[in-house]
Design goal:
Blueprint lengths: L1 E2 L5 E2 L2 E5 L3 H14 L3 E6 L2 E2 L1 H11 L7 E6 L2 E2 L1 H12 L5 E7 L7 H4 L3 E4 L18 H13 L4 H17 L6 H15 L4 H24 L1
Parallel strand pairs: 3-8, 3-9, 4-6, 5-7, 6-8
Antiparallel strand pairs: 1-2
């Protein structure tokens, strides 16, 4: 974000919130490439200091035409964000940044203030998951997976199912650890490799069942 001659703030990039970080990064890259525009992407689980240095170096490679730099990640280390602050505020000529992540809280307020925020997670209504995740047992999971196998869908329906499961988890007040969130990222990646939906969703449900049993055991004690 910088200022024009009248002192009005001008934004120089975007933050996109998406449940499917990696798919959104790829679709944006393809879309920009189809317009014959220059695009470079940095896609990883976590943006570290070395990634920030690589992004800055790429931004300073001069281009006569507009160049979009896509940064897509689940997590961003604070020191990496601080290193990117100046170039996000005053990017070189013709450079446009797009940051893609799942939650805006992954980014420092100083980063968020420099870019336009677009929340794609709320663009469409997410269907209910179809299984009460607060009262799981192996029998219910088996029946649920059997129904999935009977009507095996497309990669898109698998993505929607994972999104609806995340929404159900949020509504149930369940806070996932970083390791558990990574399981969801891996599940989305497996869908891209055309794995069956039932095989992708099974580890997620078993993880929730284990959490439920652990919490119940603690209450008994």
């Amino acid at each position: 974000m910088n200022q024009n001659n009248r002192g009005k703030m001008q934004y120089t990039g975007n933050i996109i919130l998406s449940y499917d970080i990696f798919e959104k990064a790829q679709s944006l890259k393809d879309e920009i490439a189809l317009r014959n525009e220059i695009v470079r992407d940095f896609v990883c689980e976590e943006v570290k200091m070395e990634d920030a240095h690589a992004i800055i170096a790429q931004a300073y490679i001069a281009e006569k035409e507009k160049k979009t730099i896509i940064i897509a990640a689940q997590n961003f280390r604070n020191e990496a964000q601080n290193a990117l602050l100046k170039i996000l505020e005053e990017p070189p000529q013709n450079i446009h940044f797009i940051i893609i992540t799942r939650n805006k809280t992954a980014l420092l307020p100083t980063i968020r203030s420099r870019l336009v925020l677009e929340d794609l997670r709320e663009k469409s209504e997410i269907a209910s998951f179809g299984l009460d995740i607060t009262r799981l047992d192996l029998g219910k999971i088996f029946d649920f997976l059997k129904n999935i196998n009977a009507s095996e869908g497309t990669k898109t329906s698998g993505k929607e199912m994972i999104e609806s499961l995340l929404l159900a988890i949020h509504k149930a007040g369940i806070k996932l650890s970083e390791e558990e969130l990574e399981m969801f990222d891996n599940a989305l990646l497996e869908l891209h490799n055309y794995r069956r939906i039932s095989l992708v969703i099974t580890p997620l449900l078993l993880m929730l069942l284990l959490r439920q049993k652990t919490n119940n055991a603690k209450r008994v004690l």
